[in-house]
Amino acid sequence: QLRYFVTQYTxxxxxxxxxxxxxxxxxxxxxxxxxxxxxKASEYExxxxxxxxxxxxxxxxxxxxxxxxxxxxRNSGKETDxxxxxxxxxxxxxxxxxxxSIAEKGMHDIYIRVIxxxxxxxxxxxxxxxxxxxxxxxxxxxxxxxxxxxxKVYTVDWSNPGSFSKGTxxxxxxxxx
Length: 177
Prior knowledge:
There is one protein chain. This protein has one helix spanning about 1-60; strands spanning about 65-75, 80, 90-95, 105-115, 120, 130, 135-140, 140-145, 155-160, 170-175. By secondary structure, the protein is α+β, with helices and mostly antiparallel strands. The strands form 3 sheets. It has a 4-stranded antiparallel beta sheet, with no helix packed on it. The protein is rod-shaped.
């Protein structure tokens, strides 16, 4: 009986060794597969982040055309175009937004920076900060426009709290970062 048990146990041990070797190979194969899948997942994650940045940049509003007109306000309240800085009281900014099927339709904030001839940003009482191109910047005026991807002309009037001095002014529009 003991010999029978020894033979039986020896056979069981051999069978378990075979199963152990098979399981070891299977485990090593699974480890390799998991490592390659993890590497692909991290690669896809990185690629997804890059594509998200590209899509975000593509979805940003871009101006089609911009025109800026200095405006004088007469005592009667009538507004007329002027060419002299001393008589101008506000700037009328007309712009179109280029067709963009990726951009989200709806309200978009427009940040306007007005820079005087000496290179200083004109800051109104209601001016604040915004983020563009990962930089925090100060704006002169903020408004919102309803974007519907139809080529509409938008008009923004900005009144200078001070007076305009002679020279060339720079107006920069920002939307969606």
